[in-house]
Design a protein that fits this description.
Blueprint: H1 2-68, H2 71-82, E1 91-92, E2 107-108, H3 122-131
Antiparallel strand pairs: 1-2
Length: 133
């Protein structure tokens, strides 16, 4: 009977050792999966933040496009670049150095059609700037 108890106690020990080995294996697999899940979730969060940032940037660009296509912008550009004015508008020119409280601003009549400007070469402009007053 001595042999049988040794085998049964050895079987219990082997069973216990196998159970511990399985427990370690399962625990490490669970740990790896949990770490992998956290990494994937962090990547998802980063991509969502990037999508939100791109969406906001896209919205800003859409607003700019809408503004550049608006009538207000076109009128402003026509006034600035082409020297045009609305028929009911009066143009006032303020000369530098005269912007004080006592300065009287008089409206200046502008022609209805914009004047044609003669194109002057850049080197001529510089020559005139330095040598002609």
């Amino acid at each position: 009977m001595g042999n049988k108890s040794w085998y049964s106690s050895m079987g219990v020990k082997i069973g216990l050792l196998a159970g511990v080995a399985i427990l370690v294996f399962v625990s490490s697999a669970i740990y790896r999966e949990t770490a992998n899940k956290k990494q994937i979730q962090a990547e998802i969060d980063r991509l969502r933040e990037e999508a939100d940032r791109i969406s906001k940037k896209n919205s800003i660009i859409q607003d700019k496009i809408a503004y550049f296509q608006s009538r207000d912008y076109m009128e402003m550009e026509a006034k600035d670049k082409l020297n045009l004015k609305s028929p009911d508008e009066q143009v006032i020119i303020v000369k530098p150095g005269m912007a004080t409280k006592e300065a009287v601003v008089e409206p200046v009549a502008r022609p209805e059609k914009p004047e044609m400007k003669v194109a002057v070469a850049n080197h001529v402009k510089w020559w005139n700037y330095f040598f002609k007053y």
